[in-house]
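retry 2 of 3: previous attempt timed out while embedding 5'-O-(acetylsulfamoyl)adenosine. Reduced batch size to 1 and resubmitted. Inputs unchanged:
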Amino acid sequence: MIRKITTLGGYIREYQESVENPKLFWTHQAEAFYWRKKWDKVLDWNFEEPSVKWFLNGKLNITENIFERNMFLRKDQPAIIWEPNNPEEEGITLTYEELFKKVNQFANALQKMGIEKGDRVVIYMPMIPELAIAMLACARIGAIHSIVFAGFSAKSLVERINDAQAKMVITSDEGYRGNKTIQIKAIVDESLTDCPSVENVVVVERTGGAVDMKAGRDIWWHDAIQDMPEENEAAEMDSEDMLFILYTSGSTGKPKGIVHTTGGYMVYSAYTFKNVFQYSDNDMFFCTADIGWITGHSYIIYGPLLCGAKTLMFEGIPTFPDEGRLWEIVDKYQVNQLYTAPTALRSLMTYGEEPLDNKSLRSLKVLGTVGEPINEEAWHWYHDHIGKGNCPIVDTWWQTETGGISISPLAGIIPTKPSFATLPIPGIQPVVLDNEGKELSGRNVEGNLCIKFPWPGMLRTIYGDHERCKNVYFSKFKGYYFTGDGVKRDEDGYYRLLGRVDDVIVVSGHNLGTAEIENAINEHPLVHESAVVGYPHEIKGQGIYAFVVCSELSTGGEEGIRNSVIKGVSKIISPIAKPDRVQIVSGLPKTRSGKIMRRILRKIAENNYSDLGDISTMLDPDLVDEIIKGRIG
Ligand code: 7RM
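retry 2 succeeded.
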């Protein structure tokens, strides 16, 4: 069992230990797991190549740590609780034993179809239990899963399948999302005309909608598992064998296949899950992310299941059939920990408190956020209306590349402060570097967030392109892992994330983080959300361009809002941070995971939008034309 930190003193002690003797610290954590053969060296690393190896020559299987290790205590305990898109449809609960059998059965099916250790399998599926089963079955037999969020286009899917040279795609006929039905298999079919490496496609029947099945290539899931035994001997994996590849968009357009390996990722995802959320036996944990993102990998599946937790998996969206859906789910399953994104909160806030009217929400103990800075207004709304003032908020900073939460309060242990991710997780050694690479020590400093010592959950490489991994993360600041984020360490030693460093605006020599300005703008009562970018300005070097989404227009109309937004920023931060241009828009261009695409807005603000680059990950591409039409300047 992973030990849980329970007091602030405990955190301080454990953090110190993790810095003074990281190898010993992680040895203790790793010993909580079942290893077929123990490692003979804890860590081997250098950040120049880079090369990072944890628990060297240790042999294990991550699913043995989820199933065999939990079976004695939790055989009949729910593992995955699945809530369908349509609340009228019945949900599904899989106990540890039931899930284990299904994973084994599908693992056997994969092997029968010729999938071997090391083969890449792309999973392109809606949020249904088979997605979890498929992913764990891959891990069971040592195949490398690469999950692609089922909202991605055929073109994005092709790019990922080909980069990974996947031998198989696992998908479903269609998917439900709110009141829409998504043609998932049709997108796979369209993609596969350009993917010669794929030999087979396994198709889960979700909706029963008509699909084309290509003879010799496509096979139904229910046929594939026919007569398959419910036992499967787990493949013996080396600690540093690849567990999965997960693609994340890069600044140059071509997605990066982030590689995570078995031993380190296992230890790190479980350790952070238990400690950050302070999960206790029998709690119900609900992470609203899609498993297609790292948040879903680490905190719907691996972290919770490794800890023997009950993890809720939701197929639908927060606004279907109405805006109270998330809160209804919290009450229905008596959720104890809720983990979601600020963007979801900001959009739910716009419906006011009415969707909360007949909801209790009293089961909640911990609230979490991830993905972007949470502005103070959303923080307070979450705290007051969802947590009823009783639940600590963990603002968790991390990345696909870090594998798990890296800077965050431990719930109820580290005192929180709105819009601060607070302190590093034990084992994480963050540093603030100036642009010349000098470490800024002490309090009240601001600069580039880097990490100076390896941790078990960190990426090992970019699949097929180690040179790119080196260039992106290990070259700008020699000897450090560079996160790409700007950060401030305040007078309490707390970390506040300031957005991507390429989002810094330099106005008349002053460095301003976009997040800080956006925060100030969002305090305006009529502002729903905003995005700030820089544009070339003759006098100041860069001017500040704000795109603002309003819930309604005040009596003064657009002009009134513009003026009050500018006044507000001036008062909250300083007149230096005053936006030069404020454009009211109906929405912001976002990725499907909810991140604002500032790259696009920057080009529009710079009046240079003939080539916007890859916009295939954008949620609502129609917005772009509207924003260009309303452009100021
Ligand atoms: C987990 C995830 C990573 C980027 C990261 C940041 C931003 C994530 C926070 C945050 C401020 C947070 N992985 N980010 N969490 N910024 N506060 N709590 O989102 O690979 O998709 O994105 O997201 O810029 O570098 S990710």
